[in-house]
Amino acid sequence: MSGFALCEEISVRFRDTDAMGHVNNAVYLTYLEVARQAYWQRFEEKTTYDEVPFVVAHVSIDFRDQLRVGEVARVCLRTTWVSRSSFGMEYELRERDSDRIVATATTIQVTYDYEAERSMPVPDWLRAELEAIEGHALPPGPTSG
Predict the structure, then answer these.
(1) Is a pLDDT exceeding 60 seen at residue 145?
(2) Do 95 and 102 contact (CB within 8 A), yes or no?
(3) Please, what are the domains in the chain?
(4) What is the pTM for the complete model shown?
(5) What is the radius of gyration, based on Cα positions, of the chain?
């Protein structure tokens, strides 16, 4: 989809669904995580996924339609801003074949020093990688509109 740095396809599994037969709302968090992992794999500075220097501090999801077993979720994401110690991502989840929007989401990641157990400034290399993937400089904070 245009405007998104990455789209990842995820087949809906039976275990993703609830008693109503549609994907359980909690599973959408896993779908976002799968897309973030694919995004991380695009970084030029190769580090392992267990060296990710951030934690997810906030998630917001708006559910718009249902996904069911046998359908494929296309999860698209982009980084929208980078501040001193955090960055924001936007997501759009569509059912692949019908192209209907099933959810939109945002996450805020805080860069984190695991040894010191506290937030830290966004490393220069991380900002550079995010901007390289997005193809432009990122604003310093959330933007509206």
Answers:
(1) no
(2) yes
(3) 6-134 (3.10.129.10)
(4) 0.92
(5) 16
